[in-house]
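User: Fold this; tokens only.

Assistant: Input:
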Amino acid sequence: MAPTTPLRARKRSRLLAAAAAVAVTGLVLTGCGRGDTATASAEDKATGEGLVIGWSQRGISGSDWWKTLVAGGQDEAKQMGATIEVLDANRDTTQQNQDVQTLISKGVDVVIINPNDPLGLAGSVKALANAGIPVVTVNSSLDPSLVDQQFCYVAEDQVATGALAGKAIAQKAIAKWGTSGEIKLVGIGGYPGDVLSELRYQGFMQGYNEVMGANPGVTTTELDFKYGNWLPDKALAPMRDVATANPDLKIVYSESDVMQAGVQQALTQAGLWGDGILEGSYDGGMESVKQMVDDPTGPLQATASNQPWDQGAEAVRMALQAYNKNTEACPGGTKYVQTTVVTPENAAQYYKPEDTYVRAQDDK
């Protein structure tokens, strides 16, 4: 673990304060301008000073990922002198529509939405347009029928991020088992038909096949994809079943670090957790990073980071650009954050116990 410095201490205090703030149900105020935001001039707001940003969050409680997303946005707003007002819909689309109406009535300058239902906010999106309030979406986008009404969608490129993990695991496989032989591989994600599960697996296999394409002596058998509802207890049974039925299983791709405890327990119960397994994951959760720091030769050998803090910060930056009508800031209407993959080789560099998820290195 890296030594504590005054800068790191300030970073830790800032994150803990922000995380505590978002835990409060209802309205959260973060940041301040040079005075009453209602009287801030358009010239000031164009710099971020006194800009009032409404944030309609689909959920906060029970999700460290969402807490980190909002905390990153709050921190960025504070740095630019903006005020950010967060309303938590608690995973309820009806409530989220009401929240958007509340933000409109408050006269916010821009609205950031993390949609609970991509199509269920159609009325709210129309109301925002009628009020002349630009919209930025983050983490989840609107339905394709509505995307032309948003200024920018901020997220990670799930295919590209998954490919980082796939490439890293394929390289580990070649180093471990050589350039010939058979590899059985299985992936586990959220729900059947879940777009996130499909994209993350597509990316993983893209990166994996990029490496294996240069090693034709390796034959890879992809087992039927499993679903764990993004939860450790739900991932346990399907992963244990596939591991028990396939004692020669060699690679596991878990599409969320949240499922890690269930995946590991399942493989342990099947007698496979150990030197004969390679595991890649997705999320960049700090617990997974710590696991690689503590056990660099263990099965977990890669986690692709989707960096919620950076997504939240970027959403606020795009909100400022939306206020300024700077369409060049979000070409094509999508802004992907730069993601990375953490392996045992660089895990110590990324491990920050005060954080919950990996952040961009220049924000450490």
